[in-house]
């Protein structure tokens, strides 16, 4: 269904969740050479146990500019960049009245990490390549739980950064995926058993698609954006229809 990625190199920043592993697996299946990255080599080694052998691993700490610059220097030329790093787990929820400056600045790291990675990638990315960033459904729909104002701001910054760059750095294509709740992600793992059961029940009864997002579904959205040469500047909701509710 997707165009072959044979002869192309895909760089993925982030690994912990099933989401990143599903993207790595699918891009490798399409023939790409894949560089998978995370700040911990131990975690990369662990991830490799469930992935095909031709995937290369490299450490990078996306929130540190020097680490990101050195990472892209080492990688050399490549075709596609996918950034999923820095989920909401790294962005503690807090009501504004109680929010410390440190918490707010921590939440904005998602934007800064994305900025460092995209800027450093420009030296070596192919002109007909693509960049796919990850935002969140929080940019379209707020949570009644509250406490996500700065998380939403960071995700909005990522989304508008991507859309603006689609013009500025064309013909490189830039797109953004805005997922809703995904199973087998770090947010999902951080929930207790009864919360997970409640979320599954909610998805089955309330969401138009009657299930929670799966890592493979996220990977399919990313692959569509990577391989379709006519898509750029898009912020793609991938949320099971939650924004319709
Ligand atoms: N999961 C959801 O339901 C959901 C909903 C809406 C939006 N999203 C977005 O979708 C993306 C993927 O979600 P996720 O839940 O899979 O996120 P995640 O696991 O929290 O983060 C993705 C990856 O980034 C890595 N990472 C964190 N800090 C890093 C750093 N400084 N340098 C390099 N890598 C770093 C994480 O490693 P560690 O885990 O080892 O720290 C993890 O491997 C995120 O951008 C998230 O905001 C997710």
Explain what the structure shows:
The chain is an alpha/beta fold. The chain has one domain: 3-Layer(aba) Sandwich (Rossmann fold), CATH 3.40.50. It contains nine helices and seven strands; from the N terminus they run βαβαβαβααβαβαααβ. Strands 3-2-1-4-5-6-7 form a seven-stranded parallel sheet, with helices on both faces. β2, α2 and β3 form a beta-alpha-beta unit. α5 packs parallel to α6. The protein is globular. The model has no long low-confidence stretch (mean pLDDT 93). The structure holds NADP nicotinamide-adenine-dinucleotide phosphate.
Provide key terms for this protein.
single chain, 245 residues, alpha/beta, Rossmann fold, 7-stranded parallel sheet, 9 helices, 7 strands, binds NADP nicotinamide-adenine-dinucleotide phosphate
Question: Quick summary of this structure?
Answer:
The chain is built from 9 helices and 7 strands; from the N terminus they run βαβαβαβααβαβαααβ. The chain is an alpha/beta fold.
CATH-derived architecture: 3-Layer(aba) Sandwich
Bound molecules: NADP nicotinamide-adenine-dinucleotide phosphate
Q: How many domain units?
A: 1
Discrete helix count: 9
Outline? globular
Order of strands across the widest beta sheet? 3-2-1-4-5-6-7
Global mean pLDDT = 93
Poorly predicted residue ranges: none
CATH class reads Alpha Beta
- What share of the residues lie within helices? 40-55%
Structural class: alpha/beta
Q: Can you identify the CATH superfamily?
A: NAD(P)-binding Rossmann-like Domain
The total count of strands amounts to: 7
Beta-strand content bin: 15-25%
Largest sheet: 7 strands, parallel
Give the C-alpha Rg: 17 Å
Distance between the termini: 31 Å
H/E series: EHEHEHEHHEHEHHHE
CATH overall fold name? Rossmann fold
